[in-house]
TrEMBL record:
<dbReference type="Pfam" id="PF01403">
    <property type="entry name" value="Sema"/>
</dbReference>
<dbReference type="InterPro" id="IPR001627">
    <property type="entry name" value="Semap_dom"/>
</dbReference>
<dbReference type="GO" id="GO:0017154">
    <property type="term" value="F:semaphorin receptor activity"/>
</dbReference>
<dbReference type="InterPro" id="IPR036352">
    <property type="entry name" value="Semap_dom_sf"/>
</dbReference>
<dbReference type="GO" id="GO:0030334">
    <property type="term" value="P:regulation of cell migration"/>
</dbReference>
<protein>
    <recommendedName>
        <fullName>Sema domain-containing protein</fullName>
    </recommendedName>
</protein>
<dbReference type="GO" id="GO:0005886">
    <property type="term" value="C:plasma membrane"/>
</dbReference>
<keyword id="KW-0325">Glycoprotein</keyword>
<feature type="domain" description="Sema">
    <location>
        <begin position="33"/>
        <end position="474"/>
    </location>
</feature>
<dbReference type="GO" id="GO:0002116">
    <property type="term" value="C:semaphorin receptor complex"/>
</dbReference>
<dbReference type="InterPro" id="IPR031148">
    <property type="entry name" value="Plexin"/>
</dbReference>
<dbReference type="InterPro" id="IPR015943">
    <property type="entry name" value="WD40/YVTN_repeat-like_dom_sf"/>
</dbReference>
């Protein structure tokens, strides 16, 4: 079930909207009561699915009207701000087999077909066209476009291979970011795990979002010719080194001229004093230019956090917020500067069973962009290699070129994709040793910067960030 404190139901802060997708797993009365005092006249409002077999996967809040949209197994719900069901749309189950590619909707499949649940993998509000983009696990990840008012199906493209976004069945395997324009159709950046099928699915791509929900070009690549497309594919020979390699996307957002994704990636590292290698997971931020149709601007850099000698390296959640005037003064930045709130658990080895020791850390997006610019400049001076874990089958050296690289440089058809080797460390704000932090949102309240973190056991904690020392980290 999901609950909502009655004294908060009338107005949801607009800056909370994307983060509610990550809060659903801890949405219960106990979690919110950790934040707000109990009051017998203000009970918690609740919404429960009709069946115990229906689990909730994603949640988004319409920042204009306060309506709540819930993506679940086989269902999409629209709720009022009082958690009253206003509309519902059934998405499954249906006859399918995950091994059918293309899906049986397009051509007959020789695999045995059975009734299969549709797990909601992505839920996005397209404000410009007043529609909800709901992508599921059926048929290699096709999506429905639903009218926000009543969840009426506006379109469900499935005829072209671009319509199959991801064959992974896990609910958290896909992340999308919409880039809006005033005078042209929007773009949808899609990032997904590929589950060992790099020949079928790009790990990141930019897609068209036409006004017409039934347009033939819906979800088509922004650019595609014989040699270049608006996508990044993991080379198949990467899987000879790391058979279970994948890129797991935790969070995504746009800021300025760029789109960013935060990821977890497996890597093979050498043990100290030994030729033996072991697999660990590295948290990395990926950046792309919004207008780069050839994806020559792809850069990734490792991120992590450290406090009192303890390394926190496994990314759990993230959220982008503004600094606000009081925190900005403490950090020596502007109130409108972007601050990235991140949650890491201890170590690098246990992706599925993360340790309870965890930390809330912040990064200044400007610092990250400065580090990326430094790396671009050094590579275009011919220094080092491209340094990407998923290109490690061969070290590709940087090529020298005489050009000016400024803050908005978007790459050339050389020295790309590019990696940064040195980790950027965040500033630790709060640590938890017993009850792992699993989610975070943040917003500005009367110039104060506040973060709310959710824990494994369902507790909600408020963290103030007003009086930090001036940032001295990298």
């Amino acid at each position: 079930s999901c609950c909502w404190p009655a004294n908060l139901r009338t107005k949801v802060p607009a800056t909370w909207e994307p983060g509610w997708r990550r809060w659903l797993g801890m949405c219960n009365a106990e979690s919110v009561s950790a934040l707000l005092p109990s009051h017998p006249k203000k009970p918690f409002l609740t919404f429960s699915s009709e069946s115990t077999e229906i689990s909730f996967n994603h949640l988004v809040v319409d920042k204009r009207k306060g309506s709540i949209y819930v993506g679940a197994i086989n269902w999409i719900y629209k709720l009022s701000s009082d958690l009253v069901v206003e509309a519902r749309h059934e998405t499954g189950p249906d006859i399918d087999n995950p091994k059918c590619y293309p899906p049986r909707l397009v051509q007959p499949c020789n695999e045995p077909l059975t009734s299969t649940n549709n797990v909601n993998k992505m839920l996005l509000i397209d404000y410009k066209e007043n529609r909800l983009i709901a992508c599921g696990s059926l048929y290699q990840g096709i999506c429905k476009l639903l009218r926000l008012d009543d969840l009426f199906k506006l379109g469900e493209p499935f005829h072209n291979k671009e319509h199959y976004l991801s064959g992974v069945n896990e609910s958290g395997s896909v992340y999308g970011v919409i880039v809006s324009y005033s005078n042209m159709d929007d773009k949808l950046f899609i990032a997904t795990a590929v589950d060992g099928k790099p020949e079928y699915f790009p790990t990141i791509s930019s897609r068209k979002l036409p006004k017409n929900s039934e347009a033939e070009g819906m979800f088509a690549y922004v650019f595609h010719d014989e040699f270049v497309a608006s996508m990044i594919k993991i080379p198949s020979d990467t899987f000879t080194i790391i058979p279970d390699f994948d890129i797991y996307y935790i969070y995504g957002f746009s800021s300025g001229n760029f789109v960013y994704f935060l990821t977890l990636q497996p890597e093979m590292i050498s043990l100290s004093g030994s030729t033996t290698k072991e697999q660990v997971y590295t948290s990395k931020l990926v950046r792309l230019c919004k207008e780069d149709t050839a994806f020559n601007s792809y850069v990734e850099l490792p991120i992590g956090c450290e406090k009192n000698g303890v390394e926190y390296r496994l990314l759990q959640a993230a959220y982008l917020s503004k600094a606000g005037s009081i925190l900005a003064r403490s950090l020596g930045i502007l109130p409108e500067d972007d601050v990235l709130f991140t949650v890491f658990s201890k170590g690098q080895k246990r992706k599925l069973k993360s340790l309870d020791e965890s930390a809330l850390c912040i990064f200044l997006l400007k610092k990250i962009n400065d580090r990326i610019k430094d790396r671009l400049q050094s590579c275009y001076r011919g220094e080092g290699t491209l340094d990407l874990a998923w290109l490690k089958v061969k070290d590709i050296h940087c090529s020298s070129a005489l050009l000016t690289i400024d803050d908005n440089f978007c790459g050339l058809d050389m020295n790309a994709p590019l990696g940064v080797s040195e980790m950027v460390r965040g500033l630790p704000i709060f640590t938890e040793d017993q009850d792992r932090i699993t989610s975070v949102i943040a917003y500005i309240y009367k110039n104060h910067s506040l973060a709310f973190v959710g824990t494994k056991s369902g507790n909600l904690k408020k963290v103030g960030l007003d009086f930090l020392k001036v940032w001295k980290g990298s």
